[in-house]
Amino acid sequence: MTSELQKVADLHLIAKVLEPKEYPLQGLKSMKEKSLTEHTAVLYKGYVDNYNRIVQLIRKTKPKDANPHYSEIGELRRRLTWAHNGVFLHQLFFENLGGDSKAPEYRSSKMITTDFKNVNRFKKEMLAAAMVPPVGWAVWAWSALDDQTHIFVLEEHHNSCPIGVVPLLVIDVFEHSYYLDHKSNREKYLNKLWKDINWEAVEDRVELLQRFMKMKK
Ligand SMILES: [Fe+2]
């Protein structure tokens, strides 16, 4: 965190202020430059700005005002989940794009084969899940609770969020991801997007997870 941002954090009694990351992705098959720039530099940045704003505003609320009906703190707490998940799901999504590897690498492939029989079946299940939410996400994630991977559908991103999971592959299916380039044809977007998956990034996540699991034993 830069010293300027640390000053803001100190002023508002919060641990840290998030900085938007840059994603210089080029030559994607699923998204043209204009829609990608809108997604990364405008929409994602908006999530980061609002996350910082909400975290700061929560510190200014009065805990005694909280109730199940309406309170400023209640609305801010609800929007915190929206902003937090919006920031990090986008980061995971952009980071798992832009690769030139053609298929899941060794560790990911092994995990996929264990939990989904084969990569082709996993692809079909993942893309089918990505067709489900009116707006939201498809997420392949490892569950710490049953020690296996699942494909989850997140409606928007403050609802239906599974607990105790580590995301490994994230696909954004909010309309802003594909409408500019593919109009309402989400299926076309998804088929192109599959060729944009950065399997090296997915492999890094799986490797990190497996190292962590080994440390636990
Ligand atoms: Fe998005």
Question: What this model shows, in words?
Answer:
The protein is mainly alpha-helical and 217 residues long. It has a domain at 106-216: minor pseudopilin epsh fold. 54% of the residues lie in helices and 11% in strands. It contains eight helices and three strands; from the N terminus they run αααααβββααα. The chain has helices at 3-11, 33-60, 72-95, 106-116, 119-130, 179-182, 186-196, 199-216; strands at 136-143, 148-155, 165-172. Strands 2-1-3 form a three-stranded antiparallel beta sheet. A hairpin with a 4-residue loop joins strand 1 (136-143) and strand 2 (148-155). Helix 2 (33-60) runs antiparallel to helix 3 (72-95). 26% of the residues are buried. The site of fe (ii) ion has 7 residues, from helix 2. Residues 39, 43, 90, 172, 174, 176-177 line the site of fe (ii) ion.
Helix-strand layout with pairing:
Blueprint (H helix, E strand, L loop, with lengths): L2 H9 L21 H28 L11 H24 L10 H11 L2 H12 L5 E8 L4 E8 L9 E8 L6 H4 L3 H11 L2 H18 L1
Antiparallel strand pairs: 1-2, 1-3
Helix pairs in contact: 2-3
Fe (ii) ion binds next to helix 2.
Hetero groups bound? fe (ii) ion
General form: globular
**H/E element string?**
HHHHHEEEHHH
- Biggest sheet: strand arrangement: 2-1-3
CATH topology of the domain at 106-216: minor pseudopilin epsh fold
CATH architecture of the domain at 106-216: 3-Layer(bab) Sandwich
The share of residues in helices is 40-55%
Backbone CA Rg: 19 Å
Task: Output the CATH homologous superfamily of the domain at 106-216.
Answer: Iron/manganese superoxide dismutase, C-terminal domain
- Integer average pLDDT: 93
Q: What ranges have pLDDT less than 50 throughout 5 or more consecutive residues?
A: none
Number of helices: 8
Distance between the termini: 33 Å
- Number of E strands: 3
What class would the helix/strand composition place it in?
A: mainly alpha
Give the CATH level 1 class of the domain at 106-216.
Alpha Beta
For the sheet with most strands, the description reads: 3 strands, antiparallel
